[in-house]
Amino acid sequence: MAGTKISGLADGGAIQAADQVPVNRGGTNYRAALGMLASVQDAVLPADVANSTQTLADATGLALTLAANAAYAVHGLLTLQSAATSTGYGLALDVPAGAAVSLTGLGPSSGGGVAVADSYADGGTNFWAASVNVANANVAVHVFGAVATGGTGGAAQLRFLSEVAGSAVTLKGGLCWLRATRLS
């Protein structure tokens, strides 16, 4: 869309959230409201983070900033490695005080099975798998859900643990991401 100019700004020159900009997706041209583009935020894990304890630890770099009194759809794809097939993992999304969280996870477990879990609590382990299907290799886990903040905004921080003390679970840098889309 080279050479496309933004015209007809809502208030005669200052950019507003309702103003539209050209967007090209897969060779098709669309127009998207600036406010819609601003409502999506992503976090990508910058480097590997390991945890070999049964205590939740922050996945440093996988945090999103949530506004007060807002609703978000949360979606993520995590790539992790486990030291042994018998070493499972736990995941949690720590949200601001007063927020409600509903998180579902989908990931492989030993024997080629799939682990699915739901949780509706902040600060605890929201999703866990007691084992993985392959040791020391990348395993993909899909997480999705919703967060509704109360009067306090703040960070939504991904946390994780190992199901077996002394056996590491590693989230892989550059291969883990979280996205929050503001709904209201």
Question: Would you give an account of this structure?
Answer:
The chain has 184 residues and is mainly beta. It has two domains: 1-38, no CATH class; 40-182, Jelly Rolls, CATH 2.60.120. The protein is 3% helix and 51% strand. The chain is built from one helix and 14 strands; from the N terminus they run E-E-H-E-E-E-E-E-E-E-E-E-E-E-E. It has one helix at residues 34-38, and strands at 20-25, 28-33, 40-44, 49-51, 57-66, 71-82, 89-94, 100-108, 114-119, 127-129, 139-148, 154-162, 169-171, 177-182. Strands 3, 4, 6, 8, 9, 11, 13 and 14 form an eight-stranded antiparallel β-sheet that branches. The chain is globular, with a radius of gyration of 19 Å. 30% of the residues are buried. The model is unreliable at 1-6 (pLDDT under 50).
- Helix/sheet category: mainly beta
Number of domains: 2
How large is the count of helical segments? 1
Which percent range describes the beta-strand content? over 45%
Q: What distance separates the N and C termini?
A: 30 Å
State the helical fraction: under 10%
Compute the CA-based radius of gyration: 19 Å
The count of DSSP E runs of length 2 or more, i.e. the number of strands, is 14
- Which topology of the largest domain does CATH recognise? Jelly Rolls
Name the average pLDDT.
82
Largest sheet, if any? 8 strands, antiparallel
Q: Based on CA inertia axes, which overall geometry fits? A: globular
- The H/E string reads EEHEEEEEEEEEEEE
User: Which architecture of the largest domain does the CATH hierarchy give at level 2?
Assistant: Sandwich
Spans where pLDDT lies below 50 across 5 or more residues: 1-6
CATH class of the largest domain: Mainly Beta
